[in-house]
Amino acid sequence: MAFWDSLWQNKAAQFDSGSAASNTIDLTRRRPTISLTKQGAATGNLRVNLSWKMRTSDIEGRSRQSGRLLRHPLKFFQPEPVQAHTQGVATVDLDIGCLYELTDGSKGVVQPLGGYFGDLNDPPYVKLSGDDRFGSPSGETIFVNLDHRDDIKRLLFFVYIYDQTPAFDRTHAKMTLYPSNGPRIEIELDERAPEARSCAVFLLENVKGELLVRREVKFVYGFQGELDRMYGWGMQWGRGFKAGTP
Length: 246
What we know:
The protein is an alpha+beta fold. Helices cover 21% and strands 35% of the residues. The chain contains 4 helices and 13 strands. A hairpin with a 5-residue loop joins strand 10 and strand 11 (184-189).
């Protein structure tokens, strides 16, 4: 009976995970836009999360190496050349950022670089929760106070590599939007861009009172200044550092 009970619990868990996975909308090239207003999610706090992990090819490389150790057990006692693996992971520091333009004409940026963490209850109504430098499962999160949606004209969410080492080809990054109502929205950075240092991921725009999310996923070789020129923000940019960074 214990075996059958265990089997039934596993089946139930599979069905539960399947229903949870179906509660997601993927924005793709074929379906790039969704209306938060039409799905009743234009109020409350919108949570935008950036997460990333190693590419599958890197993981498969480690699996192949484990297989070689099983075939040649004496290699287990040899020093492992870990530099190639750890460098590929440790030097990848992806940061989330948001260019904002409010209806009163004010513009700016929310990002870890320079310590521009924003504010949720006062302009720009966009707040960065923290800076994850190690790619933990929780990633990095920006909150948007959509109760002030009438004060927001457009928000451009982007990702950049802080240490200036191009590494988008070694990571699998994803932005997930968690609205106050309805399914979450996922945008995969699924294009290989080995030399890119930044990526415009999506735009949140107030179009005649309707909040629209539009997938962008446009990689650029520069940083925030290049994204600014691409989308016509018109701000001046200088070199910045994170807190605690020389």
